[in-house]
Amino acid sequence: MRQDIGKVQEHAQVWAMIGAHDPVRWHAKWRVEKFVGDWTEEQIRAGLAPAPYEVLDFEENLLMYGGASCLWQCLIGNGTGTAGQALTFFNNGNAAIGVGDSNAAEAATQTNLQAATNRLRRAMEATYPIHADGVGSGAASIAFRSVFGSSDANWAWAEWGVFNSPTDATGRMLNRKVQALGTKASGTTWTLTVTLTLA
C-alpha cells in the first residue's frame, strides 16, 4: 500500500513539473479604432485626428497551419525577404493585415480570408511589426498594425487575418478571426492592431 502511495506521489510530482514547464499558449489581443475623417497613421500619432468614435477590444484567433509552418521554416533559416513567397518574412516591407466580409468559420487549413470579393489587405504602418528583442517576458510578443483610410474596405467587417504579403492570394496567412466589427463607410478611418503572444 505504501508503495502504491509512493508511486501516486511520484506521478503527481512528475505531472506537476510538466504542468509548470510545458504549456505554451498562442494568444491574440486585438483592437479596432474608428475615426471620422480620412487620416494617416502619422496624423493619428500626432494628435491631429479626433478621438475615435468607437474602440473595440477583443481576444482570440486561430493560428493557420500554413502560418505556423512559415514561422518554423523561418526559425531554421528557410525564410526569404523576397515579396509574395510562401516563406516571406513578416517584416515591415511584407506584412499586412487583411479584412473581409465573410463570417465563414475559421479553419486551420485556410490560406486566405473567405470573402469572395470584399477583402483587402493593408501594409504595415511605420515601425510595425513591433517586437522588443530580449530575454524578459515582453520578448514573447509581437504587434502588427494597419490603417484603413476613407476609401478602404468600406463594407461589413466580419473577418481579419495577418499575412506576409500585402497582395491578395499571395504569401501565407498567419492567423484568422471571425468577428462582427461593424460596417465601415467612406469618410471614416479604421485602424486594426493585433498583438500576438506566446506564453
Verbal overview:
By secondary structure, this protein is α+β, with helices and mostly antiparallel strands. It has one domain. The protein is built from three helices and nine strands; from the N terminus they run H-E-H-E-E-H-E-E-E-E-E-E. Strands 3-8-7-4-5 form a five-stranded antiparallel sheet. Strands 2-1-9-6 form a four-stranded antiparallel sheet, with no helix packed on it. The protein is globular.
Show the helix and strand layout:
Layout: H1 2-21, E1 26-36, H2 41-45, E2 54-59, E3 62-63, H3 65-75, E4 96-100, E5 119-123, E6 141-148, E7 156-163, E8 173-183, E9 188-198
Antiparallel strand pairs: 1-2, 1-9, 3-8, 4-5, 4-7, 6-9, 7-8
Summary, kept brief:
This protein is α+β, with helices and mostly antiparallel strands. It is built from 3 helices and 9 strands; from the N terminus they run αβαββαββββββ.
Number of DSSP strands?
9
Strand order of the largest sheet: 3-8-7-4-5
Radius of gyration: 20 Å
User: How many structural units, i.e. domains?
Assistant: 1
Task: Sum up the overall morphology in one term.
Answer: globular
Largest sheet: 5 strands, antiparallel
Structural class: alpha+beta
What are the segments in which pLDDT stays under 50 over at least 5 consecutive residues?
A: 5-9, 11-18
Q: What proportion strand?
A: 25-35%
Helix content: 10-25%
- pLDDT averaged over residues: 92
Termini separation comes to 40 Å
Which series of helices and strands comes N to C? HEHEEHEEEEEE
Total helices: the number is: 3
